[in-house]
Amino acid sequence: MKSLWKKLALAAAVIGASFGARAEGSDAPKPLPQREKVIVAMTAKVEAYIPMLLADRMGEFDKENIDIEYTFAKSSDGIVLLSTGRADVLGGQPSAAIFNAIASGADIRVVAPLFVQSPGSKQGIWANNAFLNGRKFTVDLFKDQTVASAIGLGSTASYFLQTELEKVGLSLKDVKFQTMASADILVALENGAVNFGYLIDSIWQKADESKVSLAFVQGPEMSAGSWSFGPRLLKERRDVGEAVMRALVRTTRTYLQGDYHANPAVMKIMLEELQLPEETLKKGVSLTFDPNLYMPADLAARLQKTYALIPEVLSYTELMPEDRVVDQGFIAAAGIPIPAK
């Protein structure tokens, strides 16, 4: 399954392919009988969330008889909003906090990925050049250092960092994490407040490479984030959740395959929604969005095993099965075959 995910991601990145797995008309609009409001929580308007923003601006939600309302909150607050029904959709990461909420009984499920790493992207761990002091980066330099990230230890960045640390006999126990806003991480890196930090797409493009350098990028084998649904869309109004997914699938397939930065209509909306200078967006590369919205294989198992390396990151001891964390029924309702395990 891991190899299948890699093949799908690479195919989408190279040719922006439209996979033949889509059933005829399955993602076509099926307007809800009455207008419905869906509240979407996210940390900020960044390119990772462009499928949602674009679906809204391109009228895909209107076709489903849906109005989108956005609320902005830090990751931990977004999970509270989702679990208590004050938000219906959460854009973010399948963090340890998400797993802990599910384990405690919250009606939350991960339903679709955001994007996978594009070949030209430099999203990943960056280092302060003054700390390197002319040295070539090596993984052993992480020992006893602090890494700044938006979520901290219980984030998908932990998985990629652990993968690298294992190569030199280290683990997450050998580093510390400091949580700060994504934009603040770059500032902290450049002024030497931290020596390592995780820079996401739309942030690393602003980096002054005389002050900071890329240490390593995250691999393409796992989504850089996810969409999660809360109790209303999972249970009370699953039909609304299916309508949201149809709109996301259509938008991803129609507008976000290949180099969508070259599409003037898409770029115009991105400039307006993301509030970034045009030169910053043009400096970045188009993200890779899987047209089938498949979640990476064994997502729950791999992340839980990583988070469990550090005591008290997870609030439970027995790892949850995949279907307790991920609900692929929404993409199935959009006519996308679920890969065999």
Automatic annotation (TrEMBL):
Keywords: Signal. Residues 50-208 form the SsuA/THI5-like domain. Residues 1-23 form the signal peptide. This is NitT/TauT family transport system substrate-binding protein.
